[in-house]
Amino acid sequence: MPDPPRFTDPFGNPLPEPGQPPARRPPREPEPPPPPGGAAPLPSWPLWTAFVALLGGFIGGSLLGGIVYGVADANGHDPANAPIGYDLLANLLLQASLVASAVIFARLGGRVSAAAFGLRAVHVGRALLWMVAGYVTYVVLSGIWLTISGADDASDDITTRLQDDPSTATVAGLAVFAVVLAPIVEEVFFRGFVFTAMRSKLNVAWAAVISGVMFGAVHAFGSPWQFLVPLSLLGVVLCLIYWKTGSLYPCIALHALNNCVALSAALDWSWQIPLLMLGSLAAITAILLPISRLGRRAPATA
């Protein structure tokens, strides 16, 4: 058995004997290259966290939503046809549960910051180019699918609620939820977290397809089955835009635009569309501006 080294540093590493030249350090390994599209290095979120975070978020949101509808029942309302305020509150709690679940599981990989979820600066010209290309592709392919499947006249729950109750309160509540809050939360969760976690083990194509299908599937509760294919396609397109631009801001803006068009079509709006879109972008900016500063100086976690 060889004798232990006579001279060691405080960490137990051997030191050269007196009179001997210092040992040469091994060459430093090169830094890993950044991911395609010019984005910053990916956070180290394990693949399994994408699925567990979605499950945890939905369980938490369902429990909180059950409490909301329990209150509605106690106040004499049928939970299946409760006033719109109960539905909006239940959906808001579901969105909050998804974000909380993503943050909890993201901390398993270390530092949590807004930039890690994709809330980082972007080149405007590059973003607009990919937004236009992605949205045109989505509209064309979705139109073909809806025509083939015979779902041209189908409608989802939001459209039905607007047509049954086009009051100012209903329109305002659904507009805030669908055109402001949902684009932020769903992009942070599905693109910022789920897509990123999947890329830890999968290539971009498979990560985009799987996370896109997950995005479409979560809308099954309020949409006809024919709508799930276009929604999944939208999820894939948004993943690719995030990959190419390295920022979540173009995805949030495009998501808001799509919901704005859908909401306006349900209300037969025309000149109101640009006003709704500009208002939603202003509200989104007001929400994200302070959030984008969070976590920049947060210490790394073990």
What would you say this structure looks like, in words?
The protein is mostly helical and 302 residues long. Among the domains are: 45-102, no CATH class; 122-153 and 166-285, no CATH class. Helices cover 62% and strands 0% of the residues. The chain has 9 helices and no strands. Helix 3 (124-149) runs antiparallel to helix 7 (225-245) and helix 8 (249-266) runs antiparallel to helix 9 (272-291). The chain is globular.
Brief sketch in words of this structure:
By secondary structure, this protein is mostly helical. The protein is built from 9 helices and no strands. Among the domains are: 58 residues, no CATH class; 152 residues, no CATH class.
